[in-house]
Design goal:
mainly alpha; 13 helices; globular
């Protein structure tokens, strides 16, 4: 039991993912600043922001709505992100447990943070939060099908293997899945799905600061908002790690740990450049983008996989 608690709370669990996510958040903000010809924040700024919310800022509860659900929702988001991260990172680090990391379980756990934001915003009773929740629901309906098709295509490429260990081993004994035409198409679709899951521009319509004043997060402050920030930072780390695991060969011991870190940084760099070079889409445009074009792209990839490409 103590070993599993260590895995969940310390490494590769909550503490490790929180620190890695905060550092990637700084990396993202630093690149954004350079693109905009600014200096950017210091290395520890994400940690300052988190602990300021957690320890200094006051929690203001909404007058209308369900306060208990409002407060519990961010914790649900952190739990879902942490559990998904565990099932992704344990196979990546070669740590053997009783559960071998079924990608279908990971797929469902990765949806919990988004659902927690919806539940919390609707529980606040704020009309702007309700609009943000409505947009988040429509966005989930749009990109989750594409993301599921990407996972299904990876299962096909791995010879009908459903667990993360086998998917990674298949790539390491052969070649990374991205080293094929179908793999490149899946990578493109996967990057855009991650962009939407993280609600980054051009898919940030649920919070849309200039329209909805942060939308689904508008009523959050203090420690509950710190938990939302924590869940988002964990997701900012584990989603690129998941993409690296299923398409980019995962990680081998030794010098390949450095190569793994570089792959994570490369995916985050790509996400950041997309965020800084595109305007926000309307929810109708985002839905059409995923339901038509991204789904079509993945279907083409699945057909290519059937022909061994």
């Amino acid at each position: 039991m103590a070993v599993y608690l260590f895995y969940f709370l310390i490494f590769p669990g909550l503490l490790f993912m929180a620190v890695a996510g905060a550092l990637l958040s700084w990396y993202d903000r630093k690149i954004t600043a350079r693109v905009q010809f600014r200096k950017g924040p210091p290395l520890l700024q994400p940690f300052y922001d988190f602990f300021k919310l957690l320890l200094v800022k006051e929690t203001i509860l909404p007058k209308h709505g369900s306060r208990s659900v409002f407060l519990i929702a961010p914790l649900l988001g952190v739990f879902g992100a942490t559990m998904a991260g565990l099932f992704i990172l344990l196979p990546l680090f070669g740590i053997e447990t009783g559960f071998r990391g079924d990608v279908i379980v990971i797929f469902y756990l990765l949806t919990l943070p988004s659902f927690s934001y919806i539940i919390g915003s609707l529980a606040s009773g704020n009309p702007l939060a309700a609009v943000g929740a409505s947009r988040e629901m429509k966005l989930i309906i749009s990109y989750e099908l594409t993301f599921l098709l990407v996972v299904a295509a990876v299962i096909m490429k791995s010879g009908q293997q459903f667990d993360m260990n086998s998917i990674i081993e298949t790539q390491q004994t052969g070649r990374p899945f991205i080293g094929s035409i179908s793999g490149v198409l899946l990578f493109v679709a996967g990057v855009f799905c991650i962009q939407a899951k993280l609600a980054l521009v051009p898919f940030d319509m649920p919070e849309a600061e200039t329209e909805l004043a942060s939308g689904i997060y508008i009523e959050y402050s203090g420690p509950p908002y710190a938990m939302i920030k924590l869940a988002k930072q964990i997701m900012f780390f584990i989603l690129p790690a998941f993409l690296v695991a299923i398409l980019l060969n995962g990680m081998n011991p030794g010098i390949n740990i450095v190569w793994f870190i570089l792959k994570i940084l490369g995916v985050v760099l790509l996400l950041t450049l997309i965020r800084n070079t595109n305007p926000r889409l309307k929810i109708k445009q985002a839905s059409g983008f995923f339901l038509i074009w991204m789904n079509l792209l993945v279907v083409v990839a699945i057909v290519l996989i059937a022909f061994g490409l």
